[in-house]
Amino acid sequence: MKRLLILPLLTLLLSCSAKADLADCKAGIEANGKKEYLLAIESLTKCLNLPLKNEAQAYILAERAGAYFNTKQYNLAIDDQKQAIVLEKPKDVWPLLMLGAYYREVKEFDKSLEAINAAFNYDEDGPGTGAGMAVYYHKARTLYEAGRYNEAIESYTLGIPKQPDYGYALYERGRSYEAVGNKDMAKRDMFRAFELTPQEGYEPEIAAKLKEYGFNAKIRSD
After folding, report:
1. Average pLDDT in the chain
2. CB-CB contact of 51 with 63 (8 Å)
3. CA–CA separation, 71 vs 146, rounded Å?
């Protein structure tokens, strides 16, 4: 799924007293991009001590939330993401989907679904498009984790036509079919996921599950 777009820093952080103050903000965002999450947290925390405008503060909080998430500090990620949404009303689905994903990690499924359902109020792929793959996918992931497998299948089924070449959705729907004992439909989806193996390959656990169904997918090296 796509990340929050990086806004031009010098525009975003206009209320800073001096351009030199932006060093920690830029360093934190760059560290996040390089997956140096502990450094990102340190730099972004310093950045948040600056007199930022609400939009800028929300953006940096969301960046730090992502770093907290990737270091398995899920409750801190939730706190930052909630604060970011309060400071700046979301302009698209992503702040809400990320909050839903963070709640999912701590098994607060009702709160996860509440955040994700709010994303249905946005046009994901342009004016008039309504919810897209990302919204249906994240909703289905939460429903699956909550043990609501048939509802997960329904959500994946609504999302797949929005992006039919997204192998991960087919793989996850296959797991949902497997969970309700429908092995034939599970194998069909696993085969379609295999056909859509990304150029870089799938994560080892996904490749292992596909192999259970007889499909030898490329494994990601990173």
Report:
1. 91
2. no
3. 23
